[in-house]
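sorry for the late reply, my laptop died twice this morning and i had to redo everyting from scratch. anyway the thing you sent over, i finally got around to it. pasting the sequence first so we're on the same page, its 218 residues, then the predicted structure underneath. double check i copied it right bc i was rushing
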Amino acid sequence: MLETLSILGISLLLLGIAIWAFVRHRRKVQAATSAITSQPPQAPIKSDQAIPQTRTEAAPAAPTPIPAPAPAIRQAEPSLAPAVTANTERVPEDSVLRRHYQAAKLAEKEALTNPYPTDSVLRRHYAAAHGADSAPGRIGENRPTRTVAESCPPPTLAVAAEPGIPQDSVLRRHFLARLANQIESELPVKPSDSVLRRHYETIVAQKLQQYLARMQSA
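ok and here's the structure:
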């Protein structure tokens, strides 16, 4: 019985302490809340009462220095003396290379003095219109001189003794092919460059047309 009473007394004591602590804490909270609400609100600061800012007078800017005029640069006058270009090209000593060189020079000169169209149809029309009159003379004048070993006159064409051009298509084709080969044997070696080769073929065609015209007129 005494133990029960002692336990009950301790429980009541703890309960009382808890109630006292709760009441005390609540009073502190109420006191803090009342202290905050009792302070008067601060009036907002008007723009008229703002702290005047001190103006800093800007220092006068320094005068901009005027740059001195640049000295006039005198351009060099072009020299009126004609430019002298040294001819550094050398003719090859080898006979085959020399023939190629001479054929290239001949075709280059022909391209400047008598340019031919690159199109095959236009080239044929151009050769037919101009090749019979003016081209053979210019080709003979512009042909490079040959060496002593090559200066012997070319052999006469073997087909000159034939009565005329064959009428049969097969014989005519063989006749023209053989005649073209004999004409090419009188000229330098056929160049490998495409432009020079076109000029070379044009010269062969002109000579072939001239020979056929002489045969028909005979």
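The longest helix spans residues 2-37.
thats about all i looked at so far, will dig more tmrw
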